[in-house]
């Protein structure tokens, strides 16, 4: 698929701890599975290297129509 986009089907976040003002936040997303019409991904949210949340998402893959010139 050359021109495609993703629509969020579901998104869940589990909050494990608190991020504080001044902490460095980093989100690490990893594709879990890519199908023809659905894609699944997991993510870790870290504050100064400590995991404070985790997320899981499902996306619907859709083709984007080319614009006429």
Describe the overall structure.
The chain is mainly beta and 69 residues long. Helices cover 0% and strands 67% of the residues. The chain has strands at residues 4-15, 25-34, 38-47, 50-63. A four-stranded antiparallel sheet has the order 1-4-3-2, with no helix packed on it. A hairpin with a 2-residue loop joins strand 3 and strand 4 (50-63). The radius of gyration is 16 Å and the shape is elongated. The model has no long low-confidence stretch (mean pLDDT 92).
Strand order of the largest sheet: 1-4-3-2
Number of strands: 4
Order of helices and strands: EEEE
Morphology call: elongated
The helix fraction, in percent, is under 10%
On the 0 to 100 scale, the average pLDDT is 92
Main β-sheet description: 4 strands, antiparallel
Our Rg estimate from Cα atoms comes to 16 Å
Looking at this protein, list some descriptive labels:
69 residues; mainly beta; four-stranded antiparallel sheet; 67% strand; elongated
Strand and helix layout:
Blueprint: E1 4-15, E2 25-34, E3 38-47, E4 50-63
Antiparallel strand pairs: 1-4, 2-3, 3-4
In brief:
This protein is mainly beta and 69 residues long. It has strands at residues 4-15, 25-34, 38-47, 50-63.
